Amino acid sequence: MTDHTPDDFPERDLAVVHRERRIERATVMAVLHAAERQNVGFNEAMTDLVLVEHATIAEIVGTLYWALERIGRPDGPELLRAHLLLLTGIPDADD
């Protein structure tokens, strides 16, 4: 077993981490709403991605691929909802 030191896990800017989580949430929400044909929810998620977060395709593609891969499974929507539940449990700012 390898011993890890604090230098193995450098500190990351908290604002960047919060933004990454918001982009991940919006991407999963867009896929879920599109699969369920909920236009309002899809439009809201895409607005968050493009107009609020100014997310690039490079920031979206990993989560998008992950969500699209799972949405076709019989339990896909439940998996995405569970993932969203975990993501919403992470606060967006230091309160």
List keywords for this structure.
95 residues
Can you characterise this structure?
By secondary structure, the chain is mainly alpha-helical. 67% of the residues lie in helices and 0% in strands. The chain is built from four helices and no strands. Helix 1 runs antiparallel to helix 2 and helix 1 packs antiparallel against helix 4. The longest helix has 22 residues. The protein is globular and about 45 Å long. The model has no long low-confidence stretch (mean pLDDT 88).
Please give the structural blueprint.
Layout: H1 14-35, H2 39-52, H3 57-71, H4 76-88
Helix amount: 55-70%
Tally of alpha and pi helices: 4
Oligomeric state as shown: single chain
Biggest sheet layout: none
Give the overall shape, derived from the CA principal axes: globular
Mean pLDDT: 88
- Strand tally is 0
Q: Detail the poorly predicted runs.
A: none
Topology as a string of helices (H) and strands (E): HHHH
Instruction: Give the strand content.
Output: under 5%
Calculate the terminal CA-CA distance, rounded to whole Å: 37 Å
Structural class given helices, strands, pairing? mainly alpha
Alpha carbon gyration radius: 15 Å
Summarize the structure.
This protein has 95 residues and is an all-alpha fold. 67% of the residues lie in helices and 0% in strands. The N and C termini lie far apart (37 Å).
